[in-house]
Specification:
Oligomer: single chain
Radius of gyration: 20 Å
Strand order of the largest sheet: 1-8-2-3-7-4-6-5-9-10-11
Strand content: 15-25%
Bound molecules: threonylcarbamoyladenylate, magnesium ion
Distance between the termini: 50 Å
Shape: globular
Number of strands: 16
Number of helices: 11
Helix content: 25-40%
């Protein structure tokens, strides 16, 4: 089992951080909190260490990793070109939940970039991640610390559940605050393209890059080559999840729940509080339904923070079906939450008109 180091999230203990940093430098695997989700870190310039990440996660080698660094100045050695917009973006969003895709320098192993000529880089904001990067004094490649295609971990317990016997150290810095992954912005083409919506909102990016485009979220699997994190079956619980979206969402979800119950199934209904109450009123109480709230309808930040934990809890019920209600909106974290729910459904989407 992994060595568990519990640290204060804002003032992490020096000794624990040094221990984790030494493990990274020696080629080990260290799970650590970032402000988005927990990462599974390894020395980014050590190809053997990086290969261990893929093995531990059972992640296909075709899915590239994000390289985390302490400071924007540490990006220069990793890239062939540093477009001026990086300075502007860094000044506004780093440290923070923004990942930039840039041309790769030869020093970055092809294991990190999945054989590609671009590299994704990010300066995380979490004090534990920052302390670890500073103590390690090497860039740290880190995907989310979950088994491939499972919901990302937002607590150390999630990491231990998925990877406890496959990592050397888990640094427990409590639950992460944002709860969905970083925004991935590809700067290698014109105009820049958001490959994955995340912690930095589109409207905030647009203030600096007015023509930024969002890669359409409903991509199919063949189109997902540029960022395999866009694979449809991603972030999914094991229990089949059906997503209900559209205008008359609560009645449609209620009908689907009733149909499932009539067929003898046990279901989890996952929705924001108001929608959940409306569905529950229609369906009535039935021991075969587990009602699970994602949080207040208008508190998208809290919904995002709890999303992956709720998906894991919904899965743990062991029901036949999870029926989830899509959240509305296109501002702030809404595109990221919508994207993750959509992927969790892996194509099982009912549209209510
Ligand atoms: O918030 C986050 O980004 C978290 C924390 C740990 O930093 N990390 C994370 O990593 O979500 P991961 O590996 O689960 O997701 C990285 C995403 C994937 O969709 C991957 O395909 C994409 O970034 N990506 C990485 N390198 C890329 C590249 N060179 N070009 C295009 N997409 C890339
Ligand atoms: Mg991931």
């Amino acid at each position: 089992m992994a060595e568990l180091l519990t640290v204060d999230p804002t003032h992490p203990d020096r000794g624990a951080i040094d221990r984790a940093a030494a493990c990274v430098r020696a080629g080990g695997l260290v799970a650590f909190p970032t402000e988005t989700v927990y990462g599974l870190g390894a020395h980014a310039l050590d190809a053997t260490a990086v290969r261990r990440i893929f093995a531990a996660k059972r992640r296909p080698a075709s899915d590239p990793l994000i390289v985390h660094v302490s400071h924007v100045a540490d990006v220069a050695p990793l890239v062939r070109e540093l477009p001026p917009v990086v300075t502007t973006l860094a000044a506004r969003f780093w440290p923070g939940p923004l990942t930039l895709v840039l041309p790769r320098a030869a020093i970055v192993p092809l294991e990190v970039t999945a054989g590609g000529e671009t590299v994704a880089v990010r300066v995380p904001a979490h004090p534990v991640a920052r302390a670890l990067l500073e103590a390690a004094r090497v860039p740290i490649a880190a995907p989310s610390a979950n088994l491939f295609s499972r919901p990302s971990p937002t607590q150390a317990a999630h990491v231990a559940h998925d990877l406890g016997d496959r990592v050397d150290v888990i640094v427990d810095g409590g639950p992460t605050t944002i709860g969905v992954e970083s925004t991935v912005l590809d700067l290698t083409g014109t105009p820049p393209v958001v490959l994955r919506p995340g912690g930095v909102s589109l409207e905030a990016l647009r203030e600096l890059i007015p023509d930024v485009r969002l890669r359409h979220v409903e991509v199919d699997e063949q189109q997902a080559q540029a960022s395999p994190g866009l694979l449809l079956r991603h972030y999914s619980p094991r229990t089949p999840l059906t997503l209900v979206e559209g205008q008359a969402l609560a009645p449609r979800l209620a009908r689907e729940a009733q149909a499932q119950l009539a067929a003898g199934a046990r279901v989890v209904v996952l929705a924001t509080a108001g929608v959940l109450a409306a569905v529950r009123q229609t369906v009535g109480d039935d021991g075969r339904v587990t009602w699970m709230s994602l949080g207040a309808d208008d508190a998208l930040d809290a919904v995002a923070a709890g999303l992956y934990a709720r998906l894991r809890e919904a899965d743990a019920v062991g029901a036949d079906q999870i029926l989830a209600a899509q959240v509305p909106g296109d501002a702030g974290l809404a595109p990221a939450v919508r994207d993750r729910l959509h992927r969790a459904a892996a194509g099982r989407v009912l549209t209510a008109s």
